[in-house]
User: Fold this.
Amino acid sequence: MKQKNTYKRVVIEGVTPEINAGRFPVKRIRGDMFEVEADIYADNYDELSAVLLWKKEGAGRWRETAMIPLVNDRWRAAFRLDDVGRYRYTLKAWIDPFKTWIRDLRKRLDAGQDVSIDLLIGAGIVAAAAERAKGRSAVALRKYADMLADESSEERRVKSALDERLARTMQKCCRGDNATSYENELTVAVDPPRARFSAWYEVFPRSCSPEPGRYGAFRDLEMRLPYIAEMGFDVLYLPPIHPIGRTLRKGSNNVTDSGPGEPGSPWGIGSEDGGHKAIHHRLGTFGDFRRLISEAGKYGMEIALDIAFQSSPDHPYVRDHPQWFRKRPDGSIQYAENPPKKYQDIFPFDFDTADWRALWNELRSIFEFWIGQGVTIFRVDNPHTKPFDFWEWCIGDIKKKHPGVILLSEAFTRPKIMYRLAKIGFSQSYSYFPWRILKWELTQYFEELTQAPVSEFFRPSHWTNTPDILIEFLQKGGRPAFMIRFILAATLGANYGIYGPAFETCENRPLKEGSEEYLNSEKYQIRHWDLDHPRSIRRLIGVVNRIRRENQALQNDRSLRFHGVDNEQLICYSKADETRENVILVVVNLDPKNVQAGTTQLRMDAIGLDWNESFVVHDLLTDARYPWNGERNYVELDPARMPAHIFRIIPQEPVKEQSISQKDSQL
Amino acid sequence: MKQKNTYKRVVIEGVTPEINAGRFPVKRIRGDMFEVEADIYADNYDELSAVLLWKKEGAGRWRETAMIPLVNDRWRAAFRLDDVGRYRYTLKAWIDPFKTWIRDLRKRLDAGQDVSIDLLIGAGIVAAAAERAKGRSAVALRKYADMLADESSEERRVKSALDERLARTMQKCCRGDNATSYENELTVAVDPPRARFSAWYEVFPRSCSPEPGRYGAFRDLEMRLPYIAEMGFDVLYLPPIHPIGRTLRKGSNNVTDSGPGEPGSPWGIGSEDGGHKAIHHRLGTFGDFRRLISEAGKYGMEIALDIAFQSSPDHPYVRDHPQWFRKRPDGSIQYAENPPKKYQDIFPFDFDTADWRALWNELRSIFEFWIGQGVTIFRVDNPHTKPFDFWEWCIGDIKKKHPGVILLSEAFTRPKIMYRLAKIGFSQSYSYFPWRILKWELTQYFEELTQAPVSEFFRPSHWTNTPDILIEFLQKGGRPAFMIRFILAATLGANYGIYGPAFETCENRPLKEGSEEYLNSEKYQIRHWDLDHPRSIRRLIGVVNRIRRENQALQNDRSLRFHGVDNEQLICYSKADETRENVILVVVNLDPKNVQAGTTQLRMDAIGLDWNESFVVHDLLTDARYPWNGERNYVELDPARMPAHIFRIIPQEPVKEQSISQKDSQL
Assistant:
């Protein structure tokens, strides 16, 4: 007669992870258990059931995982992300009359009440489920319904009511009429593990010649591979490898007039020899390039290319597609500016051009071109000066075909813009690490980065230096400063990078006092490096990268926890793997000039120990072991010898041989 | 030839306030300045403009308020909420080429650069705006464009470029092509001020007779009004006033068999005399009721009625609409249960009945009926046992016609359910205050309640006691315990209530040891109270309610800040009005038995002072004044005399007469 009411009694909200109401995907890597939580509740006191629904994007039907109630109406479920690509997920929950009935029946039985009418109510619930069930389940439920309704033996009725098989079958078959489906369908983007855990090494191939003054080529870089691999890097990032413009080419140390023999900046892309899809003739051929990729692969390294969407005045685009650039009222092409500064050797694209479709397609095709050559990692120059919508479309499209591609966003700009670029598709992002020097700065910044919501979409890559960034701390702190900043980058962050050989050889000369530019920057000239200089910290780099590979704790960012030390020059933090079997505790002396000592105040739960537990810390840098006890332990670090401990925590291991003091063993 | 690109470069996100992506309204009161903030940014370095759009719901066109950039890409605007009802609001932002051009022009001029081509670019921007502008603005802009393009006098061109009138006209007329409209249209529900600031007094009219044993009537309550008004309450809340069922009526102290003369529980609604739209014949007539409303109004008090959607077995609904109740398999009607407990004198409605439309309409009509009698405030009994969708529909519909109605949700249940009820429309909500006794419990709970997001939709009402809740602290702490809990409720919360005369006369006898039920509860029997007992704290109540009315600081919850005291038995907090001219600082001794002393650690910024400033605290309870200095000040409170200070902060006032110690002046 009247229609059944169809309103929903169950509320699903507060779903985590979820970015901008599902507008953007959450990031994970292949192999992760993906945990989803939500607030799920209804009016009144009925029992609920809930499931997490998930599937690989574009691949068949939804799969279900039952959610488990935690406390305070919070529910959780998880599934394994087996493939690279995108998964969809959402939730469903309903009032569960059978669960409610069983719960109440038990209470009534415990109180010794007459339950004969309650058993009839249960029979009705089970009979209704039988109507909707199929096959063997339907038969079984019908039988249970009959038993519950059979008034000849109270004992048998109760026994069948409490039968676990009945509960299981009902759980499987019984869906409330008015299940609530969560309002958003969400996405998790699954990247290859290297998106979360990588050590980058930036190098200018043209400076790789073993003979000073000769223009280095891919073949020279090939010779350099063992040196880089020995340090343990896994991504080898090359500045742009394309032909370089001649018009208004910059000379050494960024002077506006270049001499005749000067090589120009690799970011001044394009000449009569070609543009973004060509290789600078002095670097080698496409064959050489593919061979470099293949040789690097033998050392476990991937090549990352630099994608800089801008043109020199000599780029073929300027001649063939003048409509892709903005015109000034005098008819000239608008060069790059940061008023009052002018960069007349660089033409930015006009993403708003009437011919934008052709421009956008052409830019996307540059990625496709290099992917065709075997490149799977890109470092993207200044993405924040191009529209967000361009990147979202471009990256989305590329990843549909090549879900394993990794893109690093080089956007040193305001935080919300950096976060947005991560949300719209960049796999990794340069961070403010270079300018976080003091303990409170490091602590505050890394806590923001490694906790939700930021950690759900933003994967920071921490660089000790870049061709543009030589921080004052490195200029003035000597070799210990390089060791300190390296250990911080490599242990605070699962992703980090250095620009070498400038870094490992401790190059510290700025263009001028107060500048972060390098003197004789490789951006404008070819350099020859003394790789075997005694100042080099390449052995330390090799040890730390080995420790990173051998300890899963250092392969994620989310487990980072800071611990107290009663000295502002000492910073202490830990990381752990998912199982907490591998726990690493790092103490760094931030002062490159002086010995610093202090007492820790460990957060014992963060390192998987009881507040008063005894344990051993094994320094993976020096192989020394120390017996520690509870939260408070003495540490002392001499930057001239080794400015850090990288401890592995060993719970409860008995220590016999140790009588040396912590101080004595720090070599 | 080709179409203009229509993608949006500006992002608007992180809008506050916003509840569940705009699914629910934010709450404010009439007269509030309504502040809206958002993260607004774009790629690249262009200047942006943004506006807040708002209008009264269903009333004409959108109005605009320019947003002001704060720091870190956060923007803000505000408008005044002049009326009770609903307002809609949303945001719009766009790239502002003129602002960008002016900013860059100033930099170029400062650097002494040639700007002749830049002025031509500006002329183009202004000319384009002139095309789209109308009337005088269009004429003015065209003139400016001509001046900017006129190369005869550089000086005049620059002067007109920097003309403030040009900037203002451009601001008014110039909208970027691709303005971003925020994706959600949001709502703010504006209530009368009493929704945020109210002091409730619950009283059983049938216990108001001056003669012991006689059934009190509305006329008796009328005689009681001066007594209640003297205490300073502004809402007088009556338990249900309807005919009471006879079948299975509960007797004194909740025994299941009532004697013949027993009055029954007012929540056992409905008899042959009528149901939810009838008045119990011993209380009086509808005329008496309306007269009560009118008399209370003369004292500045409103009457709040209790709406309890349930029926006694004798309710006319049971006879006329048996389909509104659930049947048991034996054909009987399902009574209320909390297994194994059974409440056979109460029938809940079946909100899922096939006849739900008729039921829901009838229940809504109960509100309409009493609104017709002049009631504007309702206390709703156990709303969490009815579907959320019912309340959202019912309250939404009522408020469309009667936007000034206030509804208090009596849902003592899990926090997320309580919050949901607030989101779907309840104006106020009972809180867990009765069970927050210790300093850390009070601090943690009130910080959650008074900060966003909870404070945006949930208005707690803090009750010292109810007919169901006599907490152990009151049972055992003597008169000082009543003073302490009263001062906490009335100063921590802008909304609070007491159930009297049980409270002010310090009734502390529980039904039995370990129970929170009252002995001889008024729920089941008529009581006669000795209002003039020397134990009564009604004078203190009167003083505190006067302080609340005279100090705007106490009329909001959002300004609540806790301050340190080095004694766990002393709690210290402050509140301030919007302008911070009125700042109240409260210190309460939570120990009803012992004198407690300690030193404050004030958060000086929260009370509008510099960290080392001298000031005077004026105790509004005792009229004493003390010179204080900076964060640390000595306090000592004797619960036997007065367990609290309610200080008004008086910055920098010179104090001469004071030489008495703080301790001596506490009478």
Chain A has 16 helices and 30 strands. Residues 116-132 of chain A form the longest helix (17 residues).
